[in-house]
Amino acid sequence: MNAPTLIREFDPDPAASLADRGVLRFITAGSVDDGKSTLIGRLLVDARGVLGDQLSALARARVNRAGNGALDLSLLTDGLEAEREQGITIDVAYRYFATVRRKFIIADTPGHEQYTRNMVTGASTADAAVVLVDASRVAPDATGRIELLPQTRRHTALARLLGIRHVAVAVNKMDAVGFAQARFDAIVAAYRELAQRLDVPQFTPLAVSALDGDNVVTRSARMPWYDGPTLLEWLEDAPGASDDDAAAAAPLRFAVQLVLRSTADHHGGARRYAGRVGAGQVAVGDRVRLAPGGGDAQVVGIETFDGALAAAGPGRSVSLRLDRELDISRGDWLVAADAPTRSAQRLLADVAWLDTEGFDPSAPPRRLWLQHGTRSVPARVRDVAARLDLGTVQWQEVGEDGEVGTSGVLGANDIARVQIETQAPLAFDPYSDARATGAFVLVDPATHRTLAAGMIRGTAG
Question: What is the rounded CA–CA span in Å between residue 198 and residue 167?
């Protein structure tokens, strides 16, 4: 396992500051009370992302934990009454703002363990993650070693499993530890060890104080030893989905949501296939293949509500016309003919178990629905192969009858590697290759509760 690259230096390119970097979707993660909502509030205020009437409403808020007449910036994202009364984030709060260089979509995710499912929701579409660590809550022991909090480890593990490649570790509340470089360096060393165990390729450490705005938007004079970027500088420079090399080079993955029939006399037939480009690009003249099932055709038209296009990239909702009729229905995929998906009924996957009702592999098989793209298919969990121990941050194999290694019984917020069998073949890519075709959720067909979020790793024997 390679050690993660520690990125510290930041040398902004003046010419790049004038370039529009597109949209960046990012999440804030970490343990409860690490200051995620306050950090986002400070970022919005200092980056001029909050209107005057919003600030006035903030000053009149009935609940204010800041004291001394200061604005409670966490209220900008903690909008639920229960969140404001308890001082915690419960639901995912989405906020939008822009600078001259970039537009941002922020998902402020909860830190409490019981709301881990909401963190998974926010992270599933994120390009980057800002993991907070409260510098005042993780003091070093006698040997100088720091133990990170369980939710910091869990959220980092989930971000890695969900394929987020760009991570910043914001060591927050540096004002509470006298802006001590030694505490910052010890926390970074502890996170580097965690990142190496989870095979996180690289991360950028940030020394910040959300309360006063140190190194959030403006550089702090109280930490002259810190030579890294501010939070905003890092966000403006982080690659997004539209300019990530891997996303640009990915083969086409188009999930068919609706089959449209028109009376117009189109070449190749009257059917159009509406859906969303999940990965790669599609252009007029491209050859595509139906998955699963097979059958090739050529794209002869790409249409939107606003008119025809020559090509469409990731995230675009379009309808495609083909040069020949194929037996295509909702739930199928149109993929690049020269880079087809794999197909199988037995899958090996990592899951984050989200339901309060656990899963026992020794119990009678439980009927489930697996939602994959726009398709739902009956499925069952055949076996739990391993669980991620968040104490050691290592996979623990499950032996027969749970006698070796660790128990195969899953509870809320457990992370496990499982074998899943579907009633019909599923067209997929490993999640590390393509999120669109590698992600799924398990649903209880009786209650319609989401039981687990999953990432396909490959086929199971």
Answer: 13
Give, for 275, the enclosing helix (H) or strand (E): strand 271-279
Q: How far is residue 447 from each of residues 179, 292, 369, 374, 451, measured CA to CA in Å?
A: 50, 29, 11, 20, 10
Q: Which residue has the tokens 């903690």?
A: 78
pTM (2 d.p.): 0.80
Q: Both 135 and 40 in a single domain?
A: yes
pLDDT digits (tens, 9 = 90+) for 83-140: 334 343 445 677 888 888 889 988 877 756 666 777 787 888 889 999 999 999 988 8
Strand partners, 262: none
CATH of the domain at 388: 2.40.30.10
3-class DSSP assignment, residue 427:
strand
Instruction: For residue 310, give the DSSP letter.
Output: S
Q: In 97-180, which ranges are continuous DSSP H helix?
A: 116-123, 150-161
Last residue within a domain, chosen from 313, 336, 359: 336
**Token code pair at residue 133:** 């660590």
Q: Is 35 left (phi over 0), alpha (psi -120 to 50) or beta?
A: left
DSSP state of 75: G
Query: How far is Cα 123 from Cα 398, in angstroms, rounded to an integer?
Result: 27
Residue 390 CA to residue 197 CA, distance in Å, equals: 11
d(CA 129, CA 109): 11
Domain boundary among the residues 336, 351, 373 is at 336
Inter-axis angle of helices 181-197 and 150-161, nearest 10 = 50
Q: Are 309 and 302 in contact (CB under 8 A)?
A: yes
**381 contacts: CB under 8 Å, gap ≥ 6:** 359, 361, 366, 368, 418, 419, 420, 442
| Residue 117 exposure: Cα atoms within 13 Å on the Cβ side | 14
282-283 and 103-108 beta bridge pairing: unpaired
Which tokens go with 163?
């394929």
**18 CB-contact burial (10 Å; exposed 0-12 / middle 13-18 / buried 19+):** exposed
pLDDT for residue 212 is more than 80: yes
CATH code, 28 = 3.40.50.300
HSE-CB at 262 with a 13 A cutoff on CA atoms is: 15
Helices (H) and strands (E) in the chain, counts: 9, 23
Neighbours of 118 (CB within 10 A): 19
